[in-house]
Design goal:
The two termini are 34 Å apart. The protein is built from 11 helices and 9 strands. By secondary structure, the protein is α/β, with parallel strands linked by helices. The radius of gyration is 18 Å and the shape is globular. Helix content is 40%, strand content 21%. β1 and β2 form a beta hairpin. The protein has a 9-stranded mixed beta sheet with strand order 1-2-3-5-4-6-7-8-9, with helices on both faces.
């Protein structure tokens, strides 16, 4: 594990590579005595997306970010499965010596956060799920074909963007497989019980409108699935419904995300 530390008046920021399975993840840890907050990225996004929310929360928190496999500065892997993504949360926490943490996940990362919180009730201080982890059956055969067609169509220029860090170092087929797996995991019969089993304070920040690849009011219909979730599990509430769309939420509504983190931390402290 390599490292590079920069000192401040109260703590040191660590950056380096965290080994896990057959790969290594580029990670950043601001250090310090504050509550550890682990940020889980969108499916093909990088840790840089969290900069505004982190700045809004400030130095009273310990912020831990990392790039998922083949994203950002992380290395390639033979395994891009969802289970690998969940395992990587443990790998990063272990590498940084963190036993308990508050998880914040956006989109794909929200599903990872929900599963990790469900499986680790004694280690999760709480969770903030940013426009993701909606239990809804949006994947059917037609949608699967649409996803594969979309990624095949983009396949020729994705390698051209890789030097910029804007796209993962995965093939178009691997990206399509990951997207389809997410659809399978998001089915109500699969994700519903995961959310029902969460025992730590959890807050959603819900976007409005569409995202890349969605049509008409698809996402708004998917978001209505939260009504049943919050009715069944009192630990889960909607913190905010914001105006920005799925892709812009961390850029435009980072204050709502930060406020949800504060809300979860307050509730968690009250329960201890």
């Amino acid at each position: 594990m390599t490292k590079n530390s920069t000192s401040s008046s109260t703590h040191a920021t660590w950056t380096g590579m965290v080994p896990t399975d057959d790969t290594a993840l580029a990670a950043t840890d601001t250090g310090g005595p504050g509550t550890p907050v682990v940020y889980l990225n969108g499916q093909f996004a990088t840790q840089g997306y969290w900069q505004r929310a982190i700045a809004e929360l400030g130095t009273d928190w310990r912020h831990i970010t990392y790039d998922e496999r083949a994203r950002g500065k992380s290395q390639r892997s033979a395994d891009y499965s969802f289970e690998a993504a969940v395992r990587d949360v443990d790998a990063v926490l272990a590498a940084r010596g963190v036993e308990q943490a508050l998880l914040v996940g956006w989109s794909y990362g929200a599903v990872v956060a929900a599963h990790w919180a469900n499986r680790n009730p004694n280690r999760a201080l709480g969770a903030v799920l940013v426009d993701g982890a909606y239990p809804y059956d949006w994947l059917d055969e037609a949608m699967e074909q649409r996803i594969r067609k979309q990624f095949r169509r983009m396949g020729w220029f994705l390698p051209l963007l890789r030097p910029t860090g804007l796209t993962p170092r995965m093939t178009a087929e691997q990206q399509a497989d990951s997207n389809i797996e997410l659809g399978q995991l998001s089915r109500e019969r699969d994700l519903g019980p995961v959310l029902d089993g969460i025992t730590v304070p959890t807050r959603y920040v819900v976007a409005s409108g569409t995202s890349f690849g969605s049509r008409d009011d698809e996402l708004e219909r998917i978001r209505t699935s939260l009504d049943a979730v919050t009715a069944r599990n009192p630990n889960i509430q909607i913190s905010a419904k914001v105006a920005s769309n799925h892709g812009a939420i961390l850029r435009k509504d980072f204050r709502a995300v930060a406020e949800a983190v504060r809300e979860v931390a307050t509730v968690a402290r009250g329960q201890n």
